[in-house]
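$ run holo --ligand "zinc ion" --emit tokens
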Amino acid sequence: MATAYQDRKLADPAINVGDERYFEAAAEGKLLLKKCDECGEVHHFPRGVCPFCLSSKVDWIEAKGTGTIYSYSVTRRAGPTPYCIAYVKLDEGVTMMTNIVDCDLDSVRIGQKVRLTFKQSANGTAIPMFALA
Ligand SMILES: [Zn+2]
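-- output --
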């Protein structure tokens, strides 16, 4: 069986105060994470306060854009277009919820290596997603 990836209409993300730089970088093909200057931990989604030590000394770092599929599911009944939602563990150690794109969705497996790519929402905002490496 094969389920070919198809682009689907993506909702525009809500860009909250503090998220601007994240989406500006995404428009340039970069995925930003937050790293704590106090304890050194990396986190995602971006927050103004470190979730590990509560320090407000957090700054942006650029992710390498590589990771491994931790878990996934292919939806076939949620809408007209099937898609693969997944947790990807980035090589920086954080896990993010995302989509696996540009592949036979039936070939996706836990443990596969993936690389960063982007898809655009309805208003052209770049959304980080992953393709099989
Ligand atoms: Zn910290």
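-- notes --
Residues 20-27 form the longest helix (8 residues).
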